[in-house]
Design a protein that fits this description.
2 domains; globular; Glyas_Bleomycin-R_OHBP_Dase; 2,3-Dihydroxybiphenyl 1,2-Dioxygenase, domain 1; 2 helices; alpha/beta; VOC family protein; VOC_core; Glyas_Fos-R_dOase_dom; three-stranded mixed β-sheet; Signal recognition particle alu RNA binding heterodimer, srp9/1
């Protein structure tokens, strides 16, 4: 299609509690968060670059039925995957899939407050440890 740009514009994360999820994703990414900036039905996490991250509570969609996403639909990159896993565990984040590796690449899965699966990926070579 001529009118579509060959790029992903945004990822939507569906939630039951917009404030709680917005706070969690902001904490996870280390970006500023102020509850007074959260206005239903969506909150855009202030990411630095790339694809937008939008949290959506579907307040205006009476037909919406929330179901947690069990397989990650996106991932976050870590510059130190081992440290990220340790930090997640120390913070009490539910790790649903422990570290796996393939070559110099590693990943693990965590659960957001709604039970959605989130993947964390990163290079496990010595340069990134």
């Amino acid at each position: 299609m001529e009118t579509l740009t060959p790029a992903v514009h945004a990822v939507f994360v569906h939630t039951r509690d917009l404030v709680k999820s917005a706070a969690w994703y902001s904490w996870l990414l280390g970006v500023p968060f102020d509850e007074k900036d959260v206005e239903s039905p969506v909150y855009n996490i202030p990411v630095q670059a790339g694809v937008h991250l939008t949290i959506d509570d579907h307040k205006f969609d009476p037909s919406f039925s929330f179901e947690p996403v069990k397989a990650p639909a996106f991932n976050f990159f870590s510059s130190n995957i081992h440290k990220s896993l340790e930090e997640m565990k120390d913070a009490g984040v539910v790790v649903t899939r422990d570290m796996e590796t393939h070559g110099s690449f590693g990943w693990f899965h965590v659960q957001d407050p709604d039970g959605n699966a989130v993947m964390i990926c990163g290079d496990i070579s010595e340069d990134f440890r």
